[in-house]
Structures are given as C-alpha cells and as structure tokens.
Amino acid sequence: MAPTMTVDVHVAPDARRTALEADVRSGLLAEQKTLPPIWFYDERGSLLFDEITRLPEYYLTRAERSILDRHAGAIVELGGADTLVELGSGTSEKTRLLLDAMAAGGRLRRFVPFDVSEEVLRLAADDITKTYGIEVTAVVGDFHRHLGEIPRSGRRLVAFLGSTIGNLTPAERSRFLTDLDESMVFHDRLLLGTDLVKDRRRLLAAYDDDAGVTAEFNRNVLLVLNHELGAHFDPSAFEHVALWDEEHRWIEMRLRSRSDQIIEIEQLGLHVAFEAGEDLRTEISAKLTAGQVERELGEAGFVVERSWTDPAGDFLLTLARTYC
Ligand code: SAH
Ligand code: AVI
User: Fold this and answer.
1) pLDDT tens for residues 254-311?
2) Is the four-CA dihedral 44, 49, 54, 55 of positive or negative sign?
C-alpha cells in the first residue's frame, strides 16, 4: 500500500473543554487540591517532556531505550505483529527501534500512534509516514475514554512505553488494563514499559533536576489553565516539589503556594484560595516491581510471555498476551 497518513480526532475542542472544566472544578475545590497529569501536555508541555528525556538525572528514557536497542528484534519476533499501536506516543522516538525491527523482519504494515497532544502526534506521524513509507493512522484521544476507537485490524503489538502507566492511580491502572485487555484478541500483544523501585535519591533527582526543566514542566499546567480557562495563576508564585511516598511507592509532583493567594478562574466564575505552603498535586509516578507488574497484568486478563530489564535493572519491559 502507498504511504498514507490519516488523523482521527476523538477529542473535539468542546469535549476537551468540558473535561478540563470538570477536572478543574473537582480538583481545585477538593480538600487535597489535585489535577490529573493529562493537562500538562499542550504543545509546550510535550516539548518540555521531550527535554526531560535528555536530562542526566532522568534515567527512564535511556534505560528503556537500552532494552529496545538490545531486544527489539526478539520482541517483534515473539509478537509476530504487522501493526504497531502506541499509546501515549508523544514523539515516538524510541518506537522507531520497534518499527526498524518490524521492517527488518519484512512485516511492518501499519503504525497507529495514539495521544491526546495533537500537535506533537501529527509531527511524529508525518515523519514516520515519510521515513517508513507505511500507512500511519494517528488517533487523537484520551486512553481513559477512547481505547475503543483504535483500529482493530492486523496482528497488533500495542506498546505503552515510558512508564506512563505509572502516572495512573492504582484504580485507574486496573480499569485501564482491563479495558485494554478487552479490546485485544488472541494474536495481539501488549508491550508495557514500567519504571522499577530503586534508591529514593535517584528517584527524587529524576523529578527535580538541577536545570529546573521538570519544575517548568510542572508549572506548565498553570499556564494551560491561564490560556484555556482565563485563570490568573502566576507560576512563579508556586514552588516545584517532588516527594517520594514510601507507602504507595510513587513520586508525587506538587506545586506549593509560596503565599496566601486567591486565584480567579474567569471562564469558570471561580475563585480558588491557596494558603501559604498549601500543595496542588499534579502527578503521581508509581514505581513498580516485576512481580507487581505480572500480578496486575494477570488480574486484568493478561499472561506475561517474557520480560526484559536494562543491565542496571532500572526499567522493565513486559510482553503479554490476552488470556482468551
Ligand atoms: N511514550 C513517550 C511519551 C511519554 S510522555 C515516551 O515513552 O517517551 C506521556 C505521553 O502520554 C504524552 O505524549 C502525553 O500527551 C500522553 N498522555 C498523557 N495522558 C494521556 C491520556 N489520558 N490519553 C492519551 N495520551 C495521554
Ligand atoms: C510520562 N511520564 C512517565 C513521566 C514520568 O516520569 O512520570 C512524566 C514526568 N513527570 C516528571 N518528569 C517526567
């Protein structure tokens, strides 16, 4: 088939706006103020995340790439897929190692990147269409709501890389994996990237880098609210905080108000009060063990076929099939 790129948009502007309003109302009026991480990723947020992946402290991307460098051939061989689906695809940079391995095996037919961040998704999809000369179907969607919109044809390898699953709460993880399992058939495979539990100093450094890029990424969510809802946040009035929660084994990113302040959110007719030292939780990033990944996959209906770590044992890639 001639190379073609199509973009299916499932997050229409009014639906995006409704979801943002609901998250802001419920999250900022709660006792513990919270926003879901999906709102980091406007174009600037996606570019800041890309910068984070190259920071010396942020080992995750390098560790996952090193596994793909060594094992992409075996991964695609086991899956036998002709279609690569990628959830939360971003720039799809590491994904090229999987595409290369599929192309080398003569099986690469179609790529389906799926992300909520439309600008970055379009750029990546366009580049991959030209580089690989294949059919690319980009899907703009929220993986909590639009898994059902992903094309089902072909033998699919569904990659969810980067430990993005760690940004989901345990209840969200369970629902997401169950929904994903229900959307897959016997010859499909899931390739899941998870960050592993490790020394807390390394974890904290990865989420509070010296150059301050993660702090900028964290504060970007306030600029999104200013831009999209006419909010009046001054990002510099909030300190970037990264905490290790030993009980839940996750990093929390927070924005801590430097003073007592009342923020107007014009388009919602809201005034939100922050006390000095009060935190807005913007992200969790769970760190898992290999056993926990296998158990959670099993509870959602998957069977682990194989898993790989990098030489330092920092990151885990797991290949699983649905138990039908
Ligand atoms: N997979 C890439 C990017 C990880 S960053 C990597 O491994 O480096 C997380 C990506 O998930 C971003 O591109 C962001 O836009 C996307 N994302 C976050 N929440 C999402 C959601 N609910 N639905 C779809 N995409 C989402
Ligand atoms: C996308 N996700 C897996 C990143 C993480 O490590 O949790 C997002 C991020 N937050 C701060 N730095 C990177």
Assistant:
1) 999 999 999 999 999 999 999 999 999 999 999 999 999 999 999 999 999 999 999 9
2) positive
Q: Which residues of the chain have pLDDT under 70?
A: 1-2
d(CA 144, CA 29): 23
Q: Ligand 1: does its nearest atom lie under 6 Å from the Cβ of 90?
A: yes
Instruction: Please choose from 38, 52, 53, 241 the residue to mutate so as to test ligand 2's pocket, defined by most ligand atoms within 8 A of CB.
Output: 52
Domain 57-199+288-322 fold is Rossmann fold (3.40.50)
DSSP assignment of 218-234:
HHHHHHHHHHHH-B---
What pLDDT score does 27 carry? 98
- Atom 9 of ligand 2, residue of closest alpha carbon: 49
**Ligand 1, pocket-test mutation among 42, 116, 119, most atoms within 8 A of CB:** 116
The Cα–Cα gap between 221 and 257 comes to 14
pTM assigned to the model: 0.97
- Per-domain boundaries in the chain: 32-54+200-286, 57-199+288-322
Residue 86, beta-bridge partner list:
113, 159
